Amino acid sequence: MATPRVRIRVTPFLFTPLYLSALIGVSAQAANISLKPLSATASGIEGQHLNASLAIDGNPNSRWSSLFNDNQWIQFDFGKKVNLSRVTIDWERAYGKKYALLGSDNGQNWQFLKTVDNSDGGRDELAVNANVRFIRIDGIQRATQYGYSIFEVAFTGSSSGPVVTPPDPVNPPDPVQPPDPVQPPDPVQPPDTVKPPVTDGAGIPTRYKQQFLNHTALTTPAPFPVPSTGVPATPAPVGPEGYTPLFADKTPVIEPIQYREADGTLVTVVGFRPVDRHAREAGEPWFKSQADNAAGNWNQVDEGPGRHYTFPTFYFQNRTMGIVIRDEIPAGRSRVTAYFQVNKGKMIDIGMSAFHSMNPMLEGFGWAALGGFANITDTLFPSTQATVARHCSSSDGPFDCISDMVYLAPFAHHRCDPTWQDCKAEPVGTPPSGYDPTVENDNRTFTRGDLIEITPAFFLEKGPDGKAAVDGGGTRYYSQEKLYVVGKGIMPWYGVRPRLNNKPLPAAALSAGTASLSYNYTEEPFRSFQQPVENIGIKNMQRFVEGRRLFHTSFANGKHSESPDINPVYTEQAGKLGERFNEERCLGCHTMNGRSLPPETGKPINTLAVLTATSSAQAGIVPDATYGHNVQQHSRSTTAEDFTVKVSGFETARTVTLSDGKVVTLQKPRYDFSGPIPANVSVRQAPQVIGLGLIEALDEATILAKADPNDNNGDGIRGIPNWSKDPKTGKKHLGRFGWKAGKGSLRHQTAQALLLDMGVTSSLYPTPDCQLDFAATACKTGTLSSKGLNNKDLDLLTNYIRLLGVPAQRKVKTEWEGNRRVPYEYEMDTSAIARGEQVFKNIQCSSCHAPEMKTGTKHPVAELRNQTIRPYSDFLVHDMGPGLADALTEGTAGPSFWRTQPLWGLGLLPYTQETAQEMADPNIRHGEVSRARYLHDGRARSLTEAILWHDGEAANSRTQFEGLSGAERRDLLAFLRSL
Questions:
Q1: Sheet of 336-342: strands edge to edge?
Q2: Which pTM value belongs to this model?
Q3: pLDDT in tens, 562-576
Q4: Separation between Cα atoms, residue 962 and residue 843, nearest integer Å
Q5: Do β-strands 489-491 and 482-485 pair in parallel, antiparallel, or remain unpaired?
Q6: Quick check: bond before 498 cis, omega within 30?
Q7: Angle, nearest 10°, between helix axes 791-802 and 538-552?
Q8: Residue 429 class from Cβ within 10 Å (0-12 exposed, 13-18 middle, 19+ buried)?
């Protein structure tokens, strides 16, 4: 990968405290009065007859009108500091739906005073409490296609001091520019040798100089927040049900992912892991040659899947890092700065590519991007440690390793940035409508909503054998590609012209809010369920990869499922497999993090759970005397009794003829037990494991609000909660996980799966005897054996599952160029999806499969908080009729009661169930029937069959489905496959 280096060092232009005192003067309070600004300025005006001063001229019929885009502002200078108590804005019809009030003492450093999120125009009267000289109304979102238009702005407050003459904004007096207040000379080197090449805009074209001075003054980051180590108070039981909320109020996060400094600077923390290639690359190059590139001749030869979603060998050690992004645009400046943070070990030649070009004519793909690439060569904020020589270490602080690439402004069409002298570009392709490539595009300053497409790359130091000196693994890596939206943060993206540049996905497509996974174009849909949430933090990325290692590790021999002879053996986990088990690693049942392998006639079903009981009732389950709670079909002993369970065949339950004449046969499996036949059996698939952290982050009240046990609204849908007891504390929690919502937390769900499917003990189930009886005294008070999973590892595994991302809904058309092949998972008919979504609502599927919820603010994982999610579930249990009944009762969930299964990821599930041969050639158009199976026991071979099995509370919706026309049914299925 070519890494052209670009260096910038900037000496700041700052006001010293002494100079600020001279500007402000001595405070002198006055009575509360109407305050009149001395002047008004604006980012832009529609015309001279609509200038900024007309907003304070006292004439209710004159007005200021901005340019026609969201990122406009108007500001007012009182000539001295004043105490403001109220700001009144009289809007014209072109008002600001969303805007912010900012205050400043010097017109350069701004702080947030108030944000208005949903103005309805007319008069806005805003109470404030600010002691400032300047006030700015900063537009965020317009209400119309025009700009912002204000008849009059009025201010109320008290005077605070004498009027001072504002400094000349273009030619500031010499005394206000100290030599270098924040970057003293290096004591080892003479000052002249470290003086930056650019100090006051020298060398920058005249038109950029003032913007440079006004908007890029170097600022020192505020202290990085340290996560609280305090333990929150245990939440008290709630309501008549007497349940205990899963998380207490004010639960601290284990890692902050975004915060604001005092002046409004937005700081975003985002983690990255190593990958083999770029997110836009399939298994083949876009062009076979430079001539093809010049001619726009796309390569149509399919060479197999790409390698962006893979996890390279040694991925779980010394190979995760992150970026701390300081966005000063909300503070009134125009710079976005990137700082690198390494989790473990040391990385060299760290760089970051900014692929996305603001100019639509620039080619911006992969390593050929013209957004610039910068390696660490020195730092603008020197570390107290020796970290300035082309590397970042895990011993550095969050702001010690800064990228040389400091974004001063978006890119012009003729070069990437005015200070990047060696970065030139020529427009490519056909100019978009309204774009004139002959007109020079002066660099404007950054504004909210601008897009910065970033990906870091890094190297590890080589040893004598050419491998990583630290551990013998690889040394050279790409990483994930993220989209940073200025003023907002990391957002999931999809591809647009040219060359699949980034564009934020619309909110309606974000299945998991900003935790949703971006679209991916490397033809690896079978790995879609294995990726971390898009907004993952830096430390959490390391937790994620270490937890993933556990998920893929054999508890028999400690080997990783991927590259078992290359990845280091996890010797600490070897030998923890129980005497009896079904699979030796978590991944064995959750195929590619999806579901169990499909049940086939004559084949063992050891990747499914075969739950057994002598009897069951709401008071509890009496486990089977032979098997306990689950049949563990394999044994480490060659002389152990054979407990294999096989599918002996399938019997036809009924045949359904749909309104258009299509005939569908519903079948269910029969089972053959090699051991004793239990009195009560429930066979259940291992479900996909995506989105479970978001489900855990839902407040109990959010789920319980959807319950209607008495059908008060008369729609035939009841929905009741199930309840769970924590196996360690005995506390009652709302059930969320499992086919009958029998587990209340992911820690509980994970620990029980370890025991029942692999015989691996933990602090929640400390002895193998727990498999025979959860309620046994020995299970409740037993001491964890030396071979059990310790609490640290159980937490790692739990946090990995919490942090698994949900793919965004595939309902937005990618903007492809030429005849470029579209990965089959992104072939979509958006109009059919929209019609199908309406059919879904019309036949009342959404009564149980609730489209939208919002997570709470108590979960310890910050990435999961305050997310508007679209799981298509209410997480309650419903009576689904006798046809789907099993033989077990779990709490309030009787034999015919099942939790509403979330539908997110439904369309990608078939890819996770492919064979190894199919995965090597991912271009599979999945039809009605694939290897994926649906419903609790995998009996349904297609989504149509799964719907037709619905009964009980869902009988009305099923009947309506049977009556749909063929076109309506196809639209509905198109919608479901887009999820």
A1: 258-260, 266-272, 321-327, 336-342, 401-407
A2: 0.77
A3: 999 999 999 999 999
A4: 10
A5: antiparallel
A6: yes
A7: 110
A8: middle
